[in-house]
Write a sequence for this structure.
């Protein structure tokens, strides 16, 4: 049996649903136990994460079009604070964005910005709660990225 750690934030429940279903899928199909770090529950508390982890982040931007204006992150900053605290970003092997394609150029933009800011890869994205095929697709990508990251350490 092995483990996966996921740090995420969810304001309206979509990302939480995805993380729960991803965890169930990994347990059932790979016998992997998932440690869920739900940033919303922490009330701005931070702590060091000593094991490799993946971050999952919805985008909430304040208006704009994501190109020349409107890329100001609102509501999800506590995840960025958690990742930067205690050098946690060094153990983050990648980020997955969630969002809504109706936002066009702003689709999952905050996850892309975190990838640039912290230097870890953007592993993928999904819309809203994600479908079962998103879970299967992203589970494979996450496990491969975790394996490669662990092998390099
Ligand atoms: C005020 C507001 C702004 C949003 N801005 C964006 C955006 O800029 N880009 C995007 O891809 N999705 C945007 N979304 C969609 C959310 O990222 C999407 O609904 C996501 O699934 C929410 O995740 P959560 O339910 O875990 O909080 C926005 C949603 C709201 C309510």
């Amino acid at each position: 049996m092995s483990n996966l750690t996921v740090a995420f934030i969810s304001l309206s429940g979509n990302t939480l649903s995805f993380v729960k279903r991803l965890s169930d899928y990994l347990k059932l199909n790979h016998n992997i136990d998932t440690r869920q770090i739900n940033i919303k529950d922490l009330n701005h508390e931070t702590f060091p994460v000593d094991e490799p982890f993946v971050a999952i982040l919805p985008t909430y931007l304040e208006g704009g079009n994501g190109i020349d204006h409107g890329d100001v992150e609102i509501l999800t900053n506590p995840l960025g604070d958690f990742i930067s605290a205690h050098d946690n970003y060094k153990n983050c092997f990648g980020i997955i964005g969630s969002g809504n394609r109706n936002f066009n150029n702003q689709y999952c933009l905050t996850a892309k910005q975190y990838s640039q800011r912290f230097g870890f890869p953007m592993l993928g994205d999904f819309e809203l709660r994600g479908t079962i095929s998103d879970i299967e697709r992203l589970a494979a990508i996450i496990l491969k990225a975790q394996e490669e990251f662990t092998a390099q350490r």
Summary: Residues 10-16, 58-61, 98-100, 103, 106-109, 128 surround flavin mononucleotide (CB under 6 Å). The radius of gyration is 15 Å. The longest helix spans residues 132-152.
